[in-house]
Amino acid sequence: MRTLFLDCIAGMSGDMFVGALLDLGAPAESLHQELGKLGISEEFELRIARQKRQSIDGVKFDVLLAHDHSHVHSHPRVHSEGADHAHDHTHDNGHEHEHEHEHGRSFRVIRDLIHASTLSEQVKRRSVAVFQRIADAEGKVHGMSAEEVHFHEVGAVDSIVDIVSGCILLESLGVERVVSSALFEGSGWVKCAHGRFPVPTPATLEILKGIPLKQIDSPLEYITPTGAAFLAELCDTFGQMPTLRIERIGYGVGTRDPADRPNVLRAILGEADTDQGTESVMEFRINLDDLTPELAAAAADDLRAAGALDVLLMPATMKKGRPGFVLVALCSESMFASLSRLAFASTGTLGMRFERVSRLTLDRSFRDVQTAFGSVRIKDGSRDGQRIVSAPEFEACRELARQTGVGVRDVFLAAQAAAQQQE
Predict the structure, then answer these.
(1) Are 110 and 187 found together in one domain?
(2) What would the mean pLDDT of 168-187 be, rounded to a whole number?
(3) How far apart are alpha carbons 361 and 278 in whole angstroms?
(4) Looking at residue 138, what DSSP letter applies?
């Protein structure tokens, strides 16, 4: 699987993300053509410059808004420059330009603009989804619905271009999966259209809800709302880089140049190592000592219905000798955020333990066999084309037993014998 790993060594912003994808080899001229499909009325230009941060060379991406409207163009222009001529957009902490501009559009206008374009359906879907996350967060922070949110910063032309460009370049690189390193954020204050906000900003925190985030003692903003929305929408895991056959490495350069770390986003593109039958899944465990058996069983059922791969309830003796349960659930990495939230809501627990584990599975297939009682579905497990295990589907046996008035064990044994005869 073609996988992109985002190494957020200096955080994440929209322009750094686009710069890193361009440095991976995504074509700038293709980006120019695709952005023309948006039909944005304002004049803007793309500036793509090579710059260094602490001796690491990468791509600095900027969207330049024209102030002289006598030179309006219907399409953006692309400039590629050396590091000495890069254009900087800075504010209080100099991270990126998305807090700077007062141009605004509502989420509804932005969504309609993207949907009305002739961009690919995948680019439209991803772009709107990223904006939706920001709209939901801003609405929550300011006490209004997402539809009512008027974007002062991320609704500006430069941020629309950042978000749509990132989605265009992901598609051009053929990325199938995106994962990220563990996230951290700084401290201090940032000046926005709504006033001065503490770092992490309220919108960024809201967007990253459910994703592990650590605050460090650094008076800088490392993750902007646009960067947070990209991470939350695209990434299914946050931690160590998965096993990859690395093809390319790119660096997206941020505006400032702090002394403690190179201000770059490192993007690593490669093929994920997918050994036969092996997959990475998430396992989480919850100790329950204040839940009735009915509520514990209901919580397990909720997790299964929501897409958990497996859920176990094990009796255990808790602190002070209390009888209780240990709930153990397996899920795909992409489902972990939603299922962990559901587990908190269903059980009322205040915490859980989780880890990434490897699961080895057989290839699964199904076939029907005929018995004296009727047809029964058989599940087969195989490896390298060789059948290893076979078992009747129990629910199919139980339903057939109910219909024919015989014991479910009789149906199960008959189906098992029929399956062996077919081999």
Answers:
(1) yes
(2) 93
(3) 6
(4) H
Residue 359 burial (CB count, 10 A): 14
Q: What is the pLDDT of residue 98?
A: 42
Q: In DSSP terms, which residues pair with 245 in a beta bridge? A: 271
Whole-model pTM: value is 0.62
Q: For residue 200, list its beta bridge partners.
A: none
Domain range holding 388?
363-422
User: Could you tell me if 240 and 331 lie in one domain?
Assistant: no
**Buried b / exposed e across 399-416, counting CB within 10 Å, b at 16+?**
ebbeeeeeeeebbbebbb
Per-residue pLDDT reduced to its tens digit, 398-413? 999 999 999 999 999 9
Q: What's the CATH code of the domain at 353?
A: 3.30.70.1380
Which amino acid is residue 51, in one-letter code? Q
- What rounded mean pLDDT belongs to the chain? 85
Tell me: do 348 and 409 sit in the same domain: no
Q: Name the phi and psi angles at 194, rounded to 5.
A: -85, -5
**Do 16 and 230 touch, CB atoms closer than 8 A?**
no
Q: Which residues contact 242 (CB under 8 A, 6 or more apart)?
A: 3, 5, 179, 272, 273, 280
pLDDT tens digit string along 48-85? 999 999 999 999 999 987 653 433 333 333 444 433 33
DSSP 100-126: T----EEHHHHHHHHHHS-S-HHHHHH
Backbone angles phi, psi at 140, to 5 degrees: -65, -45
Task: Let me know whether 101 and 141 are in one domain.
Answer: yes
Specify whether 141 is located in the same domain as 282.
no
pLDDT beyond 50 at 101: no
Same domain, 90 and 237: yes
The Cα 200–Cα 227 span in angstroms is 12
Q: How many domains does the chain have?
A: 3
